[in-house]
Amino acid sequence: MNRSRSSWDKKVPQSPVTRMTRSSSSQTSNTNPAETQDAGPGPYGKQRRKQTDSALAQDLSQMSVSRQDSLPTSKGKTSISSSDPVQAGQSSGSRPGRGSAPELAAKSSSRGGLASVARLVKLGRCKNVVVVAGAGISTASGIPDFRTPGTGLYANLEKYNIPYPEAIFNIDYFSNDPQPFFSLAKALYPGSHQPNYIHYFVRMLHHKGLLLRMYTQNIDGLEKLCGIPDDKLVEAHGSFATAACHLCYTAYPAEEAKHAIMNDNVPICTFCAATVKPDVVFFGEDLPQKYFLHTKDFPKADLLIIMGTSLQIEPFASLVNTVRSTVPRLLLNRHAVGPFEKVPLRRGDHMELGDLEDTVRRFAEMLGWNDEIEELMRSQETLSNPLLISSLSESGQTSCQSRGTPEPPGGIETSTKTRPGGQRASSGGEETDSETDSKSSASSCQSN
Ligand code: CNA
To answer: In terms of Cα–Cα distance, which of 363, 374, 385, 376 is closest to 440?
Structure first.
């Protein structure tokens, strides 16, 4: 993993480049140039593109909030202390009927945010979609998030014997005692969980050629596993795919690190003898260099979809404020977070509150993508089930998979990804041609 501390500290002295909690970071939302470039030239500035669809213009001119269920929303951000994230999570679900900001917003507008955004997409207005995601997209895969009361990791950390929940991702704490993190890592290591409908929805955005980039805070690797190519993905908080010494950053074979950790051993750096850890970004550590693609991507985005995150961790959380001010932002979450807690919402802000998988399914149905996503998931399930593959080939069935070169477990790429000699490029490989890929896979599978 590339480290970025020195260069970025010099270039952007005021921007945080290490992972930190919201309470300990400076708020950058009001100072970001992308926020203030509204008056500049171009389609979103003074020479704004003419609106031809008046209904669409109306959609864009109004914020919208829609709720699938009666879950209460979170209260003001000031009461949320990320040093007490469990409490923060509870605050988001314990104040029914108090007229919190999003509830007031909901009363002021009953327009369907999801439908408005689906309409924009169908009209071809969103061709550079940026997705910002967090742990909430993987709870449907059985991986607990951080802050959901009761089920979140922070509510279940007694067994790790740590003084406060975030200690488990604190690099200084790790330096003294890596065991709490290693215990958690055993449960989080990719391998035992499968991507869900939400991951495949993002995969479908890519397939349709609409995904500019997905920025995920997740470390579970499910985005790659569902076939989102490496060049479309920024794993902002790292992953288990590589490992290095936590002190000198000497690379260490990831599989060996995994083997050691899974067997309750501590992987040791061959250079300085300090503890090796997977390249998951801890609080106080630098974010991967790839994260800085955001400086190009967010100003270019024409739709921002935020899903399954509490937006509590900086600098990631402030990214959502760096799209141009007229760009629609769609929050899909159980409760309002970040800038969506404020009233009034920004023009073009939409949120759909409730269970994420249900919401994303409805969104996909509005877009007419549901069947393709289901097909994509079925294809992937077949591919990751060796028994089914062998029974299909024995019975001579000509499924889309059995006709072509076998797919790698992490992707559903078509033969365009086949390397000479029959080997396939990994879904995360440099050779991934996402444009080619976006025109292949699911639908080519169906039409074969
Ligand atoms: P978080 O603070 O736990 O927030 C998750 C958000 O998702 C909350 O607002 C929840 O209400 C919401 N949510 C959870 N499940 C659902 C659901 N089914 N439907 C709708 N909304 C839901 O987690 P963040 O991602 O915001 O915090 C960033 C941390 C979490 C990152 O640094 C990750 O490394 C870390 N993390 C990752 C994983 C993973 O990789 N799967 C798991 C746990 C924690």
So the answer is: 376
